[in-house]
Amino acid sequence: MRIVPVTEAHVQDLGRNLRAIDKREIMEATGLSPRRGLLHSVNTSVTAYAALQGSRVFAIYGCAQSPKRADTGCPWLLGSPLLDTQQRRALITVAPEAIQEMHQMFPRLENYVSAENYLARRWLLWAGFQMVEHVQHYGVQNRPFIRFVKEVSPCVP
Q1: Would you say 103 and 152 are in contact if contact means Cβ atoms under 8 Å apart?
Q2: What is the pLDDT of residue 88?
Q3: pLDDT more than 90, % of the chain
Q4: What element of type H or E holds 46?
Q5: pLDDT higher than threshold 90 for residue 84
Q6: Which DSSP letter does residue 80 get?
Q7: Domains located in the chain, CATH noted
Q8: Pick from 28, 30, 56, 62: which is nearest to 43 by CA?
């Protein structure tokens, strides 16, 4: 597995092969098509990476600055079906470093995950995020989502 800065070709590749739950989550939250939602996520992010197995993209993840709080980043991850089958463990090995990089930019990480996305919720808990609020009517389709948060204290010399 390799982690590389995301390119337009990676976005096109994953856009053709997103997991069904990710497609649904994008449409429920934003109203955008899955490909446009993926492109929007990449384009609004401070940092974005592609996870590759050989030449195949199995996930793209990144972090955008919150429009509401300068100290808050909005982490996200979208994947192909390979993420749930062959590559779950591989991504777990790089997650701590990726989250640490996000925390170097933002002491607070916060976003929303579909209440139906059990695997993502389980992964977020494993990664140290807290599920802090169940929102029954979230996004353009007013679907149930859960707000998740992870904070670190700034270092004081």
Answers
A1: yes
A2: 64
A3: 82
A4: strand 45-53
A5: no
A6: -
A7: 2-107 (3.40.630.30)
A8: 62
pLDDT band of 53, cuts 50, 70, 90? confident
How far apart are the C-alpha atoms of 68 and 86, rounded to whole Å? 37
**Dihedral sign for Cα atoms in the order 75, 80, 84, 89:** negative
Query: How big is the chain, counted in residues?
Result: 157
Cα separation, 84 vs 119, in Å, equals 8
Whether residue 85 contacts residue 77, with contact meaning beta carbons closer than 8 Å, is answered with no
Q: pTM for the complete prediction?
A: 0.92
Token readout for 156 is 């004081």
Which pLDDT does position 86 carry in this prediction?
62
What are 93's two structure tokens? 């090995």
Q: What is the DSSP string of 96-149?
A: HHHHHHHHHH-SEEEEEEETT-HHHHHHHHHTT-EEEEEEEEETTTTEEEEEEE
List strands edge to edge, sheet with 143-151.
2-5, 45-53, 56-65, 72-79, 108-114, 143-151, 130-138
